[in-house]
Amino acid sequence: MLDQNFNLSCLFCWARIGLFWNIIKIFSMSKNKGLQERTLVLIKPDAIQRGLFGAITSRFEHKGLKLVGVKMIGLDEAILREHYAHIAEKPFFSGVAKFMQSTPVIAMCWEGLDVVSTVRKITGITKAREAESGSIRGDFAMSVSCNVIHASDSIETAEKEVKRFFKEDELFGYDKSEYMHVYGEDERVL
C-alpha cells in the first residue's frame, strides 16, 4: 500500500511539474523578447496615391508578422530632418522633404521574430527597379526616391524610429493566436 501511495504521489508531483512547465512555456511565448522585436514601416506618398496600402500591408500579414501600431500622419520639417539626418545636408534633401510631405504617410509598427531583417527582405532594395521580383519594391516601384515604402535597416535604427513615430500608448501588445502556426515551438520559447 505504501508503494502504491508513493507511486500515485510521484505521478501527481510529475503531473504538476508538467503543468507548471507548460504554463512557463505559454508565458514565455507571449513575453519572448525575440518575438517582440519591432520595426517601423512607412507607406510613402507614391504608394498612398497609387492605392497600394492594402497590397503592401497584406505582404507582412501573410508572412505572419504582428501589426502593433498604425496611423496616418503628415510629416513636418522637424521630423523629416530627424528621420533623414543622414541626408539632411545633401542638396537633394529638399526634394525628398517635398515628396514626403506631398500626402500623409502611413506609419506602421510590426513585431515578430527577426522582424527587422524579415521586413527588409520583403521590402527589397532601395533602388526599386533592381529589387528582386516578389519583393514590394520589385513588384510596385521603379525609382530610388519613389520606392513606395520605408523600412528600418537595423534593430538599433528600428528602436529609434519606432519611438520617433509612435508614443508608447499607440503600440498594442496582444497575443497572436496564429503564432503556433507561424513559428516552430523552439522559436516560440527562446
Please provide a brief summary of the model.
The chain is α+β, with helices and mostly antiparallel strands and 190 residues long. The chain is 49% helix and 13% strand.
Distance between the termini: 43 Å
Low-confidence blocks of residues: 10-15, 17-31
**Topology as a string of helices (H) and strands (E):** HEHHEHHEHHEHHH
Under the CATH scheme, which architecture of the largest domain would be assigned? 2-Layer Sandwich
Mean pLDDT level: 86
Number of strands: 4
What fraction of the residues are assigned to beta strands by DSSP?
5-15%
Whole-number total of structural domains = 2
Largest sheet: 4 strands, antiparallel
Q: Indicate the CATH topology of the largest domain.
A: Alpha-Beta Plaits
Structural class: alpha+beta
According to CATH, the homologous superfamily of the largest domain is: Nucleoside diphosphate kinase-like domain
